[in-house]
Amino acid sequence: MIKNFAKRICLAAMLGAALPAWADTATDKEKFEQFVVELKQEAISKGYDKSLIDEAFKGVEFKEKVVKADRNQPEFIETLETYLPKRVPEWKVKQAREKFAEHRVLLEKIGQEYGVQPRFIVALWGLESNFGRIQGNLPVISSLVTLSYDGRRGAFFKRQLWDALDIVKNGEARLDQLKGSWAGAMGQAQFIPSSFKAYAVDYDGDGIKDIWQNQADVFASAANYLKREGWNDNLTWGRQVKVPEDFDFSLAIPSKTKGRSDWTKKWKATEVSLAEWQRRGVRRMDGSDLPNVDIKAAMLLPDGEKGRVYLAYDNYKVLMHWNRSYYFVTTVGYLADRIGYPVVK
């Protein structure tokens, strides 16, 4: 039944005909299989070899837990007060500092070459994959096909699917290596396919950009990402601050924006010098003055006016490019601070 249904849909699509009325009565499984048929046709039209497509789509199935994960991200169901302790418990801080000490020579070499403080590399590594131990075991192709079909961000995930096929086509990874998170993020740095294509590095020169097993490639790839997006190692990421009771929160970036472009516009429109934030009554969490340095910052309210308040520097914007989530970026900054202070000996 399903195969016949798919054939009829495919034939209609090839002939340019409108879908028949009976297609509306298809089951969810039939609709997904129809979508896969059309996706494979699109891949062929883009020039991918049929043998690659057949192999890549073999066993592809709708992953309900992928859609569930996409619709239950932390910002939808938690606050920073609950999220931070879960993501950065004391044992993770301890391990992060130990990993920093263990790989110090390599981290400092890469940090110097790319202009990125090593503590941020370790923080990203720890939060993305628990220092390489949890890289995800979902087939990336199935996850991306599912998310392309689901529709919430279908166009984005379809582009990731083509990028994943490019990675295999170009010989940069095997299909069986493409395992990852529900969102198609791979390896110890949890790069989505487009990030792999843009930022992955073969640091040790062995001809492979191995973000799965090779520590040097993992660290250098993370550092390369940050550097390429404008990281400044003369700055940190930001700080939590206190504001007066009558503070005018219209001076902050709104908690909800309409995407990256809108968010960056709001940043540009609201960032001012630390001296100006000081004049407006903003102070460090212990009540002392803000640093007396000539840099600009924007104010962020991850949980709205009743939650934590942060002043963020340009490096925060870079981390938001990595993952446009206030919770993720704030957690990276917090863990990086715990790695760096007190100084690891």
Structure description:
By secondary structure, the chain is an alpha+beta fold. Helices cover 53% and strands 6% of the residues. The strands form two sheets. Strands 4-6-7-3-5 form a five-stranded antiparallel β-sheet. It has a two-stranded antiparallel ribbon with strand order 1-2. Helix 2 (28-45) packs antiparallel against helix 3 (50-57), helix 8 packs parallel to helix 13 (215-228) and helix 11 (154-169) crosses helix 12 (193-199). The termini are far apart. The model is unreliable at 1-25 (pLDDT under 50).
Salient structural properties:
five-stranded antiparallel β-sheet, alpha+beta, 17 helices, 345 residues, 6% strand, two-stranded antiparallel ribbon, disordered N terminus
